[in-house]
Amino acid sequence: MQCPFCEHTESRVLESRSAESGRSIRRRRQCLQCQRRFTTYERIEFVPITVIKRDEKRESFDRSKLLRGIVRACEKTGLSSTQLEVLIDELEAELQQRAVREVTSQEIGDLVLQHLRPVSEVAYVRFASVYRQFQGIRDFVETLNHLRSGHPTDANADPAAPPETPGEFESSPSWATPSGTGNWQL
Ligand SMILES: [Zn+2]
């Protein structure tokens, strides 16, 4: 860290303390050359993530919106809100660690399924039924078979594979669009 007075690059830390309610660390430093004192702040870098919807529209990743969708799909599955918060934390951290700042809504849906799978099979199937818009019992049976056979997901989960039914994800499930337009779809 360059000294603001003489531009010397070495300093020693006199004091470190938590600032901004724990969101940053304030350090009091002294320049090793001119001996003058200055303050630096250390913060976690947070880069916004863009979600690409099925209709190619883009919008910012909205954690609370995704959480609401998952909570609704996982009602009465025995998962606590704390578990779902942890799931969202992990998912968001994964997205933050990616080099690419854009993610498709389908990728997010698949990520949710990946994280639900080890915690609750019921929640997994229920979320899949909403997210993939199951049409009938056959879709449930297929998903259960995949779950049992250990294969992660069905063909729709492969981003490289074209959707079997075009337009399958076109309309958004009601829980994903509480306020109508402007919501990205799952
Ligand atoms: Zn200096």
Could you explain how this protein is built, in words?
Helix 4 packs across helix 5. The chain has helices spanning 63-73, 81-97, 105-119, 121-131, 137-149; strands spanning 11-19, 24-31, 37-43, 50-52, 58-60, 102-104. The chain is an alpha+beta fold. It contains 5 helices and 6 strands; from the N terminus they run E-E-E-E-E-H-H-E-H-H-H. The chain has a 3-stranded antiparallel β-sheet with strand order 1-2-3, with no helix packed on it. The chain has a 3-stranded mixed β-sheet with strand order 5-4-6. Residues 153-185 have low confidence and may be disordered. Bound molecules: zinc ion. Zinc ion (ZN) is lined by residues 3, 5-6, 8, 31, 33-34, 36.
Could you list some keywords that capture this structure?
186 residues, three-stranded antiparallel sheet, 5 helices, binds zinc ion, elongated, disordered C terminus, three-stranded mixed sheet, alpha+beta
Mean pLDDT: 78
String of helices and strands: EEEEEHHEHHH
Number of strands: 6
Low-confidence parts, pLDDT < 50 over ≥5 residues?
153-185
Our measurement of the CA-to-CA distance between the termini, rounded to an integer number of angstroms, reads: 44 Å
Beta-strand content: 15-25%
Structural category is: alpha+beta
Give the spatial strand order of the biggest sheet: 1-2-3
| Rounded Rg | 23 Å
